[in-house]
Design brief:
Largest sheet: 8 strands, parallel
Distance between the termini: 16 Å
Structural class: alpha/beta
Helix content: 25-40%
Order of helices and strands: EEEHEEHHEHEHEHEHHEHEHHEHHEHHEE
Oligomer: single chain
Low-confidence stretches: none
C-alpha cells in the first residue's frame, strides 16, 4: 500500500474522457497519452501529462507500462445483500425475489453476517476495478451501517441506503412507514456527506411500498434534496401489471413515483425497459436517470433496454451490474452483454463510448464528475490499471490489434477481474500482490 498522502507518480498509457466520444476520431472527447503519467498527492490527482513532462528527481514512481490507466469504474445499481443470491437458478422477477432474494435478505438481521458480507462485497468490487457504486442495502438499518462502515474503512466513494418496504414481502423484511422514515433519517444524518459517503433514499419498488410509505419517502426527499433516490421501474411486464393494480389512480408506473415527489435529477431508476411515451417525456422533463442492467435483464428474461431511443431524447442513462440478478460484478462483462443487447436492436456501442459510460458517463449522471470518473487534475485518485493481454486468449487477439479502440474492445468482450492489474482508491494501492508492470 502507498503511504497516505505520499506524492507518487504512476506511469502508463493514460486514457480519460472530457465528453462522450462516438468514434476514435472524436479526439476532443478524450485524452490518450501513450507514455503518460499521473502525479498523486493527498488522495487526489495533482497532474496528468506525459511522463517526460511530469517526472521529477526523488519522486516515487510505479511503472504500469504497457497497461492502461483509466478512472475507476462506477456501478450505478446493485444489491449489497444479494452477494449470495447471484447465480441462483430462477424464473422471472417476482418469483425470483420470493424464492431466493427475500429469504437471503432476512439473514442481514444478524449484524455479524452483515459485517462479514460487507467485507466480502467490497473485496469483490475492488478486484473488478469498481471504485464507486450505488447499492441497495437490506431493510435492516444495520446492513446500511455495515455497508457504510466498510466503505469508510477503505475510503471509497460509495452511495447506498436501506430499502423501505412495508408490504408484499415476508414480515421479517417489512418495516413500517414510520420506522422506514426514522431509520432512513438517522442513517442520512450519520453518513451522508461524511467522508466520501452519499445516501440514497431507497423505496425498493412500488409493489413493496404502500402509499403511506411512499408519502414518507417523499417527505425524506423534500427534507434532504441533496440525497439520491434509487428504486426500480418497468423491469418486467407482470411487475408493471401488479403495480398498476396496486395504484389504479396512477397514469403509469412512473407516475406512482412522481405522485410522491420521487422523480428528480437525483433519481436512479433501475431497468426502465418497458416505458410508455408519457414516462419517457417525464424522464426528459425531470432529468431522472434510467439504469441499464444488461446481465440481469438477460438472466431474468426481462427485455431489451432501448439505449438509442432514450439517448435520442437527451436522457442520461446509467449502466450497472444489478448484482444479484446480474450475473457478473465486472463492469467489463456488463459492457460485453450490453453490447449484445444493443446489437439485437440494431444499435451500436463503440468501445470508447462504452468505457466513457462506466467512468465519466456514470459520474455525470451522479453529478460527481468533478470528483470521480475522470483523471483530471483535482479529481480523487480512483484509478484502474487494465491489462489487455491478461489471458492467453486476450494476448493472442491483442497481437492483431492496431488501434486503441480495438484494444478496448478486447477488454470489454474478453476481460474480467483477470484484466484488472491494479486498483487505486484515493491514491492508495488496493491489490497487494499485483506486479508493477
Amino acid at each position: 500500500m502507498t503511504q497516505s498522502g505520499q506524492r507518487h507518480l504512476l506511469r502508463g498509457r493514460v486514457l480519460t474522457f472530457q465528453s462522450e466520444p462516438q468514434t476514435e476520431a472524436d479526439t476532443d472527447a478524450y485524452t490518450f497519452i501513450e507514455d503518460g503519467a499521473l502525479v498523486i498527492s493527498a488522495g487526489r490527482i495533482e497532474a496528468i501529462g506525459s511522463y517526460d513532462d511530469l517526472k521529477q528527481p526523488g519522486l516515487a514512481e510505479t511503472d504500469h507500462r504497457p497497461h492502461l490507466l483509466l478512472p475507476g469504474f462506477i456501478d450505478t445499481h446493485l444489491h449489497f445483500p444479494q452477494v449470495q443470491v447471484i447465480a441462483s437458478w430462477g424464473d422471472q422477477l417476482l418469483d425470483w425475489l420470493n424464492n431466493y432474494t427475500f429469504p437471503e435478505e432476512m439473514r442481514f438481521a444478524d449484524q455479524g453476517h452483515a459485517d462479514d458480507m460487507a467485507a466480502a462485497f467490497f473485496d469483490i468490487l475492488l478486484a473488478q476495478g469498481t471504485t464507486t457504486a450505488m447499492a441497495f442495502c437490506s431493510v435492516h438499518a444495520g446492513s446500511a451501517e455495515a455497508y457504510f462502515t466498510e466503505a469508510a474503512r477503505r475510503n471509497m466513494c460509495m452511495i447506498g441506503g436501506k430499502v423501505m418496504m412495508d408490504r408484499n414481502a415476508p414480515d421479517a423484511l417489512c418495516d413500517t412507514p414510520q420506522s422506514g422514515y426514522d431509520d432512513t433519517k438517522a442513517l442520512i444524518e450519520r453518513w451522508h456527506g461524511k467522508g466520501r459517503a452519499h445516501y440514497a433514499i431507497s423505496p425498493r419498488f412500488a409493489i413493496t411500498s404502500t402509499p403511506a410509505q411512499m408519502e414518507m419517502a417523499g417527505t425524506l426527499v423534500r427534507e434532504h434534496p441533496e440525497c439520491y433516490i434509487q428504486t426500480h421501474l418497468s423491469e418486467n411486464k407482470d411487475e408493471i401489471s401488479f403495480t398498476k393494480a396496486l395504484y389504479p389512480q396512477a397514469r403509469d408506473y412512473l407516475d406512482v413515483y412522481q405522485t410522491y415527489g420521487l422523480v428528480t435529477e437525483k433519481s436512479f431508476l433501475g431497468h426502465a425497459i418497458h416505458l410508455e411515451p408519457r414516462e419517457i417525456e417525464a424522464l426528459v422533463e425531470t432529468g431522472a436517470h434510467p439504469v441499464f442492467c444488461p446481465t440481469s435483464n438477460l438472466f431474468l428474461g426481462s427485455g431489451l433496454f432501448d439505449d438509442a431511443g432514450l439517448r435520442a431524447q437527451g436522457i442520461q442513462s446509467g449502466i450497472a451490474t444489478d448484482i444479484g440478478a446480474g450475473t457478473s460484478y465486472s463492469m467489463l462483462q456488463t459492457l460485453n452483454e450490453g453490447y449484445k443487447v444493443l446489437q439485437l436492436q440494431g444499435q451500436k456501442l463503440h468501445p470508447l463510448r462504452a468505457f466513457h459510460w462506466i467512468t465519466r458517463g456514470n459520474a455525470v449522471a451522479l453529478g460527481l464528475e468533478d470528483r470521480i470518473g475522470t483523471l483530471s487534475a483535482g479529481s480523487d485518485a480512483d484509478i484502474v490499471v487494465l491489462n489487455s493481454r491478461a489471458t492467453p486468449e486476450m494476448a493472442l487477439r491483442a497481437l492483431r490489434a492496431t488501434s486503441l479502440s480495438e484494444e478496448l474492445f478486447i477488454l470489454m468482450m474478453m476481460g474480467d477481474d483477470r484484466a484488472i492489474s491494479q486498483v487505486y482508491v484515493a491514491g492508495e494501492r488496493q491489490k497487494r500482490d499485483a506486479q508493477a508492470a
